[in-house]
Design a protein that fits this description.
The protein has 475 residues and is mostly beta strands. The chain contains one helix and 40 strands. The strands form eight sheets. Strands 23-24-25-26-27-28-29 form a seven-stranded antiparallel beta sheet, with no helix packed on it. Strands 30-32-34-39-40-36-37 form a seven-stranded mixed beta sheet, with no helix packed on it.
C-alpha cells in the first residue's frame, strides 16, 4: 500500500499485485487492481480520486487512460497483443477533475518471463511468417531471434532491419559458430541436437500433446502437468536432474536392471517381490521367488511355484474358483490337439499319485439327441424308444470314455458317426452311420471307449472304432 499524503486524513493507493507478471508472450497472470483509500486515524474508507494510468517504456508513454469520473478503484486488464516494449505502469491520483492537483503516484513494474529459444522449421525468412518471442531463424550464416513479447514480423528481413537501425528493436542477431570449443559451459537453457536442457530438466524436443498427437513445440513443457489429463506436452524422453526421475516413451535396455521400489505395468515393485504383499493371503497379483499367484477377495485363487499352499502342506499348482455365479465355471482348461502320424495328443501326463475328488461330466437323457464330446456319463430316463448319437471323434480323442446306464423303461438305440464303427457284444461290428439297440432292459449298463488306432481290414476310410465294455448283470 502506498501513502499519498501525510496530512489528515491520510490517503493511500493500493495496487494488487505490487509487480505485474507477464509471460514471454505478453500474457498477464492476473489483472492489475487499483484501490484508493482514506484513513482518518481510526477508519479506512474508500476514497474517490481522479485516476491517470499510463503504460510506459522507461519514461516514454505508450498508452494513457483517464476515466471521466472520479473512481475509488479500477481493474486494468493487460492487452497481450500490445505494448511489447513496456516495462512499467504508472498510477497517478489527482484530487480534482482537471487533474492539476496531484496527491500521489505509484509505479508498478512489469516482470517479464524470459522466452524459450525455439528454432523455426522454415529454411528461409519470409514476411508472411509470424514469429513468437524467442523463435530463431538462420539467414546468411547468422542466427536471428524475434525479441518482442508480441508475435509478429517485419516488412524487411531481420538483417536489413537491424542494419537500418529501425525501432523498436524486435530482432537480435547472434553469431553462428560452426565449431565451439570450451572447457566450461554454464547455461539455464540449451538445445543440442534434439535434446533440450531447461532448468532442472533435460527433454526431447519431440513429444505428444493432450490429444496424443506428435508435436515438437517443447515450449509447452510444464513439469507440474506431467502425467495429468490435458498435459500440453509430454516429451518422449525426459530426465529430472533434481529428483533423478527418468521417463522414456520406448526403452530398450541391455544389461542389469535393479529395482527395489516403484511400479512396472501398474504393479508395485518391492525388495524380493512384485505386486501385492509377499504372502499367500493378500489379494491381487504377486510375483515372488517361490511362486506367482493371482487372487481375488470373492473366491478366486490361482498360482504355480514351489509351494502354493503354505506351512504344513505342499503343492506346485493351485487353481480354485469359489465364486457364486449363475454360469458354467471352469477352474482349468487343458488341451492338446494337432498330433500327426503315430504321434499322440497328451493333455495331462500323470507320472504318479492318485486323483482326489475325480468326477466325470454326467448328462440325463430323456429324448433322442447327439452327445457333446464333453459328456462322459449318460443316464437314460426315457419311457419310449430313443436314439443317442455318439459324438464325432478326432485323433486327439483317443481313449475317450462314455458310460451308459438305463434307468427308464424305454429302449435306447446307439448310433455312430461316419467312418467310426462300433464293436459290441461278442465281436459284432456296427457299420458307421447306423444304430443298434444296446440298452434293452431296465438297469442295463456298459462303457464305450473310442480307440483311434483300430481300423477294419479293407476299410481305409475308417477313423477309429468305438469299443463296448459290458457290465455283467445277474437279473
Amino acid at each position: 500500500m502506498y501513502k499519498i499524503t501525510a496530512t489528515a486524513p491520510d490517503y493511500y493507493i493500493e495496487v494488487t499485485p505490487e509487480a505485474l507478471s507477464l509471460s514471454a508472450y505478453n500474457v498477464a497472470s492476473t489483472p492489475l487492481r487499483i484501490r484508493f483509500w482514506a484513513n482518518d486515524g481510526e477508519n479506512r474508507n474508500p476514497y474517490s480520486a481522479w485516476l491517470t494510468l499510463q503504460v510506459r517504456s522507461g519514461e516514454s508513454v505508450l498508452y494513457t487512460y483517464r476515466p471521466s469520473v472520479a473512481v475509488t478503484g479500477y481493474e486494468y486488464t493487460w492487452p497481450s497483443s500490445q505494448y511489447a516494449e513496456a516495462d512499467n505502469i504508472l498510477v497517478v491520483c489527482h484530487s480534482n477533475s482537471a487533474r492539476t492537483v496531484e496527491v500521489g503516484r505509484k509505479t508498478v513494474s512489469l516482470v517479464c518471463e524470459n522466452p524459450i529459444v525455439f528454432p523455426r522449421p522454415e529454411t528461409a525468412w519470409s514476411s508472411s511468417l509470424t514469429f513468437k518471442n524467442g523463435e530463431v531463424i538462420m539467414l546468411d550464416d547468422t542466427v536471428y531471434m524475434w525479441c518482442s513479447r508480441v508475435a509478429g514480423n517485419t516488412s524487411v528481413n531481420p538483417k536489413t532491419y537491424i542494419a537500418n537501425g529501425t525501432l523498436p528493436r524486435v530482432w537480435a542477431a547472434y553469431q553462428n559458430w560452426p565449431l565451439l570449443c570450451t572447457q566450461m559451459f554454464l547455461a539455464q537453457f540449451a538445445k543440442i541436437g534434439s535434446a533440450v536442457f531447461m532448468g532442472d530438466y533435460m527433454l526431447s524436443q519431440y513429444g505428444k500433446n493432450s490429444g496424443g498427437s506428435t508435436i515438437t513445440d517443447y515450449r509447452q513443457f510444464d513439469p507440474s502437468k506431467l502425467g495429468k489429463a490435458g498435459c500440453p506436452f509430454t516429451p518422449r524422453v525426459y530426465v529430472d536432474w533434481k529428483t533423478g526421475k527418468v521417463y522414456m516413451d520406448l526403452a530398450e535396455v541391455a544389461g542389469t536392471i535393479k529395482a527395489e521400489d516403484g511400479t512396472i505395468g501398474g504393479f508395485e515393485i518391492h525388495d524380493g517381490y512384485i505386486g501385492v504383499a509377499g504372502n499367500l493371503t493378500s489379494y491381487g497379483f504377486g510375483l515372488l521367488k517361490e511362486f506367482i499367484k493371482f487372487s481375488t477377495s470373492d473366491g478366486i485363487w490361482s498360482g504355480i511355484g514351489t509351494n502354493v499352499l503354505g506351512m504344513g502342506q505342499s503343492a506346485v499348482a493351485r487353481f480354485e474358483d469359489y465364486r457364486t455365479e449363475h454360469l458354467d465355471k471352469i477352474a482349468m482348461i487343458v488341451g492338446s490337439t494337432g498330433a500327426q502320424g503315430f504321434a499322440r495328443d497328451i493333455a495331462v501326463n500323470i507320472t504318479g499319485g492318485y486323483v482326489s475328488g475325480f468326477a466325470l461330466k454326467p448328462e440325463i437323457v430323456s429324448t433322442s439327441k447327439t452327445l457333446d464330446r464333453s459328456v462322459n456319463v449318460v443316464c437314460t430316463i426315457n419311457e419310449s424308444a430313443i436314439t443317442i448319437t455318439l459324438p464325432k471323434m478326432k485323433q486327439y480323442d483317443d481313449g475317450h470314455l462314455i458310460r451308459f446306464k438305463r434307468l427308464g423303461g424305454g429302449d435306447v438305440n446307439i448310433k455312430v458317426g461316419v467312418n467310426q464303427p462300433l464293436e459290441y457284444d461278442q465281436g459284432n461290428i456296427m457299420d458307421s452311420n447306423a444304430s443298434v439297440k444296446l440298452l434293452s432292459a431296465d438297469g442295463d449298463a456298459f462303457d464305450l471307449v473310442f480307440i483311434w488306432g483300430i481300423k477294419r481290414s479293407g476299410y481305409s476310410s475308417d477313423e477309429g472304432r468305438w469299443i463296448q465294455f459290458k457290465h455283467p448283470r445277474d437279473w
